[in-house]
Amino acid sequence: MKQKQKSTKSPVKRAISLLYLIAGVACATLGLRGFLIPTHLIDGGVTGISMLCAATSGLNMSVWLVAINLPFIVLGYMQVGKSFGLKCGLAIIALALAVSLVHIPTFTHDRLLSAVFGGVFLGAGIGLSIRGGGVLDGTEIFALLTGRKLGATVGSIILVINIVIFTAAAFILSIESALYSMLTYFAASKTVDFLLYGLEAYNGMMIFSQKSDKIREALISDLGRGVTIFKGRGGFSAADQDILFCVLTRLEVLKAKAIVNEIDKTAFVVLQQINDVQGGIVKRTGHLISG
């Protein structure tokens, strides 16, 4: 007899996810009702399409928000998972109801302030919702699933979609509104990045040097960072050499470069952005080093 698989998510984690979703809906509602809707500005993605449809049809934006997102919610439910689909559906319906029913006074009629702060609050809502395991905009689901088939990145697909949206906004609203709306999208995307990755966005540094031992010791003692050693061989010289790999925050990169440059000015350094780090010991704790 088959036993039902128990959820591995603890009640505390479920509660935290729910709080993230609630906070996300609240922030997005604040951005839309307090800044963007009163000044006739839009964002990118499904939210922007919904606002344009509301402007041209006279039908409430909330109706469009649910109707346009519905196919993406179903896609997320079928392709990503039941829990994800349900969270997305509940978050989007909650946002639609909040935008329609909750009264928020207009904070400013200045379009520049509205574009920036509306984008910040909307981006905060999207970022918090993603942290809660859902989304407030179906564009990300569409881009993720389409990107797999077309071999394109999620970012490039979203960019193409938003170019179409802002071009349409220039004709439907005005060129000025479209330009301000692009500023809204920029502020929102940067806020999402900040909430998901923070100020301490990680970078991977690979160091190729004949003085790798001294550099390794300096990175460990001066920065307190774990260092991994790969065994490599020079393509031209065919000589064996150690390759150092270190995970650093954005704020530590310059100091690490200075350390490397002080020990070996001829060292070859490669930097790459890392979106997330999980497991292991990235930073030194007491006298324990792991990399």
What report would you give on this structure?
The protein is an alpha+beta fold and 291 residues long. The protein is built from ten helices and four strands, in the order ααααααααβαββαβ. It has a four-stranded antiparallel beta sheet with strand order 2-3-1-4, with helices on one face. β2 and β3 (240-249) form a beta hairpin. α5 packs parallel to α8 and α9 (212-223) runs antiparallel to α10. The protein is elongated, with a radius of gyration of 24 Å. The two termini are 45 Å apart.
The assigned structural class equals alpha+beta
Q: What's the helix count? A: 10
Biggest sheet strand line-up:
2-3-1-4
Determine Rg (CA atoms, Å).
24 Å
Can you tell me the overall shape? elongated
What do the pLDDT scores average to? 82
User: How is the biggest beta sheet arranged?
Assistant: 4 strands, antiparallel
Number of domains: 2
Q: Report the strand count.
A: 4
One letter per element, helices H and strands E, the order comes to HHHHHHHHEHEEHE
Which parts are unreliable, with pLDDT below 50 for 5 consecutive residues or more?
A: 1-7, 284-291
Query: How much β-strand is present in the residues?
Result: 5-15%
Q: Into which percent range does the helicity of residues fall?
A: 55-70%
Q: Give the termini distance in whole angstroms.
A: 45 Å
